[in-house]
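Hi all, posting the design record for the shared folder.

TITLE: backbone redesign
STEP: 1 of 1
STRUCTURE INPUT:
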């Protein structure tokens, strides 16, 4: 997997329903220069990295996905899944941040795909998936059909935006037992407030903009998927690793200092 350090593109994002099945095959023995040329020509990362997208997309999913990416997925698998979700995507890895996060960022015309990673360096796992799709005139799907399809995939969607909002926001929130929140009156309907975060499981947020020329059509679709339990687990793993590294460093410093006699 190629890791290119870049300034993050738009760490926005989001999710639609399914992943693509194929990406253009690359010739065996393609050189690094050829791969770079493939990306530069707009062929996308899947071709540049010579990924077998048919096999990657056929892998069984370990949970609910956004275009083939699942929460808890290992970094290498997530990179390949993003690249193979659309053969036109150019996908890159951002540099680790001081708080332990980094992202896989994919972009093409009309799509931005961001996957947030957390954990020990090189062993990070996916803690949030974000994807945005913008539809050109003549390509917009029916608004109501989009919501039905997403509801069928992610569970009961509850509309949570306030009157007059420029876009509609719908959320699918699951309790720890897997039951879906079905009413706006439920305190978890708009997501997991800090004091109730230990009661939430999988949460999917759907933001949808209607087409101006025809409100029955979809102009922009955004899906964000996370699970507080996955984020907490990876945060704890990263924290323990950092503490262990600090203790090892301190012990080594004490050992190195053992032979230093002060001049009194």
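Okay, here is what came back for every position:
SEQUENCE:
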């Amino acid at each position: 997997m190629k890791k290119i350090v870049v300034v993050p593109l738009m760490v926005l994002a989001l999710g639609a329903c399914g992943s693509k099945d194929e990406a253009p095959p690359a010739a065996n023995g393609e050189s690094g220069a050829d791969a770079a040329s493939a990306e530069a020509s707009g062929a996308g990362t899947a071709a540049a990295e010579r990924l077998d997208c048919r096999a990657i997309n056929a892998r069984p999913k370990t949970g609910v996905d956004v275009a083939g990416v699942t929460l808890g997925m290992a970094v290498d698998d997530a990179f390949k899944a993003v690249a193979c979700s659309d053969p036109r995507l150019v996908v890159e890895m951002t540099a680790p941040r001081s708080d332990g996060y980094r992202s896989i960022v994919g972009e093409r015309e009309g799509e931005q795909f961001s996957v947030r990673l957390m954990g020990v360096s090189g062993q990070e796992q996916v803690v949030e998936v974000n994807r945005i799709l913008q539809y050109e005139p003549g390509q917009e799907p029916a608004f109501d059909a989009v919501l039905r399809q997403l509801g069928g995939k992610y569970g009961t969607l509850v509309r949570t935006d306030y009157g007059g909002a420029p876009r509609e926001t719908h959320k699918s929130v699951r309790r720890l037992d897997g039951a879906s929140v079905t009413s706006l009156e439920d305190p978890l309907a708009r997501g997991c407030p800090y004091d109730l975060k230990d009661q939430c499981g999988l949460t999917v947020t759907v933001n949808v903009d209607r087409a101006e020329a025809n409100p029955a059509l979809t102009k922009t679709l955004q899906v964000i998927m996370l699970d507080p339990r996955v984020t907490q687990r990876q945060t704890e793993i990263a924290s323990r690793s950092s503490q262990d590294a600090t203790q090892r460093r301190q012990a080594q410093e004490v050992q190195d200092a053992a032979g230093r006699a002060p001049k009194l």
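COMMENT: Residues 162 and 168 are 9 Å apart (CA to CA).
Let me know if anyone wants the other runs.
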